[in-house]
Amino acid sequence: MNRGGRCPQPDSSGKSVVTLTGTPPTGYRFRVRDSYISGSGDNVNTTTYGAWKYLTFTK
Q: Which pairs count as long-range contacts for 44-51, CB under 8 Å and 24+ apart, including other chains?
């Protein structure tokens, strides 16, 4: 399931924070990654994607 979508813009130090809320199902593996899409306000850099990070929620 792709939930792609916009996340918060980075602050002046290059960090952005996303808070997960709710009660996720336990035992399932989720994955997230960051990406920079060229044309989003910066005309110097090119599109790039970060490594996948995997999350598994437990009780």
A: none
